[in-house]
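P.,

For your records, the input lines for the assembly:
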Amino acid sequence: MFKRKNNVILPPAKIGIIGGGQLGKMLAFEAKRMGYTVIILDPTQNCPAGQVADKQIVGSLHDSNEIRKLAELTDVVTYEFEFVNADVLCELESEGYKIYPSGSTLKKIQNKYIQKSVFSSAGLPVPRFTKINHIEDIEEGIKDFGFPLVLKHCTGGYDGKGNIVIKDKKDIENVKNDLLLEKYEMMIEEFVAFDRELSIVVARSFDGKITYFPVAENTHEDSILKLTKVPAKISDQVEYKIKDIAQKVLEVFDDIGIFCIEIFLTANGEVYINEVAPRPHNSAHYTIEACITSQFEQQLRAITGMPLGSTKLMSPAVMVNVLGKQPIYGEYSVKGVGRILEEEGVYLHFYGKQFVDVKKKIGHITVLDDSLEKAEEKSIIALENLLIEPIKEEI
Amino acid sequence: MFKRKNNVILPPAKIGIIGGGQLGKMLAFEAKRMGYTVIILDPTQNCPAGQVADKQIVGSLHDSNEIRKLAELTDVVTYEFEFVNADVLCELESEGYKIYPSGSTLKKIQNKYIQKSVFSSAGLPVPRFTKINHIEDIEEGIKDFGFPLVLKHCTGGYDGKGNIVIKDKKDIENVKNDLLLEKYEMMIEEFVAFDRELSIVVARSFDGKITYFPVAENTHEDSILKLTKVPAKISDQVEYKIKDIAQKVLEVFDDIGIFCIEIFLTANGEVYINEVAPRPHNSAHYTIEACITSQFEQQLRAITGMPLGSTKLMSPAVMVNVLGKQPIYGEYSVKGVGRILEEEGVYLHFYGKQFVDVKKKIGHITVLDDSLEKAEEKSIIALENLLIEPIKEEI
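Structure tokens returned:
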């Protein structure tokens, strides 16, 4: 469905989503509620989003033919995962297909070196960084940034994958032979001794309007998001700085859609952009229950040309991720749910993933409570009560 | 999946829903969010609930083989529509399948004469009523109840279908030849000169615990729900009476699941049960956004043996139904959405029905606002802005 004259995409128009994980599933929920038709592209048959969509194209997120097929079948295309074939998106856009955020924005974000360079050029605060072409460049970096520093793959990393913290010269020796600089593009970055990790999800609509969800405070474990608290306990000044950065990031991209900006906050109140994602974010799942508009409805509103919704927080909220503790390759059962649901304001989200692996995100729990401390306590107890077990056939 | 020893049904167990309309769709949303597997039985391929479920059995809601198939494929069965084959449900229960509410409760509810008799025997306030076996019985009824009175089909009516208000003797003459008393079971009922129409949705869990959603105030037009306001502006005394009735209704049935009790409130504060439905209800759609737990999550909790959730109202709410204004037998588009979404706290629900008909429910809009008056105003403006139009192919 090609070259609509009008920018507004009305129900029951077809929303194409590249990637069929939990983010795609939660977007599909909102789209289906509002009467849209949803088509998912994902290589895994019966993926989480595929389970609730009208249709799934089973195909690779990198295959230009499959992505083209999705665009041809739908009125607008978005993605829930940034490692998709961005060149095809650019090509399709040039033919008039609607894709938000655009392929060119995605390309800038996919490569962390380019992403940081874009922000740095715009005067936005990022940790100091440099490209590594030769192993000697690391030595140069040490002179400039000192220890520790972070060695990063420029492309393909998420949840901390592809990042290595280098604490001393010995660490360099240890990784030196594994770098394969002729094969992988790599960079080093100054290590920001952050006090807290924050994030903000922002949306930009066709008419350039921007909305800001509340700033969230995140706790990571092994680089994977563990817990999000909202509202973050930050000063007005820090909040202002973060919103200002968010606005400038969106202006740099001059694009449409939803973005998450991950922020490092240092003890003396300095803020740095850690990373930007051009999609809804794990740290804003709390918006589903806690805000007037969820981040997924906001994404839908942005890409369909609707006015953006209110981001007002209706209740303090804590979100905890449910991560796999052991690999389970067959069916698994979620035990302890009864105990968890005894508490008021506890919301269960299980994604329907086909297998469990160590630290794999298989669900999340959001808790609303007038007291943030109480919400956190409930969320921890909920996690403790949860038991993910393989289903053994009854004899 | 038959005769589980334990009453608790854990994700990803299979939830069977008889009927695939909007109520089934909204239940499926909650079940999919919580990680359950959802199978729908409905005769219409690609029905609203089928669009978001894991699987749909395309088959009649009355066909015992299809219902048996659904029960065999799932861990628990419920229904979103009361006119299904209740005998099969009873049979399946006797074989150990879990079906909530039970077939025997459903049978009592399906026949309005039996339903009213059950309540009347339990001392619950219902309008006076009597069975019509001969046309002369109407004359008797007039002597007892006076004019106007309501002539009702005992089975099969909903949204006012099958009900005729008899205002005078002439009206009796007019309908006399169409009654087909040898074919249809009929009753007459005293007409309650109600001041307002209210409803309450209540749930009962395995352990006999009951939760009460807030009392809602409803406006009907041509016997179809038009608008629901919550909280209803009623005295504590009336609220107490209604909750007391609700509790007794649930105790009469001694069953598990969710029930809606429609209430007539007279100008002098008397309350009468109008009708009871053994399922989620249009007048509690507001719970999705306005309550801690939605009526659909509550239904799911009840039938899976989970503790019931908090029914706390988080905001005043108004819900308006979107009804078809003209028949549309092809694809249709929902226009005016952009204008509607400009207002804060407005939630769109379109069911994805395959065709539109006059007064057919195709969606609803819920508005949250600190002021109930403001919410009502916004809901009316939203409806006025909405335009459902056939999609004409672009040339």
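Two observations worth noting. The CA atoms of residues 159 and 224 of chain A lie 5 Å apart. Chain A touches chain B at residues 8, 10-13, 25, 28-29, 32-35, 37, 46, 51-52, 54, 292, 301, 305-307, 309-310, 312, 314-315, 331-335, 337-338, 341-342, 344-345, 348-352, 363, 368 (CB under 8 Å).

Regards
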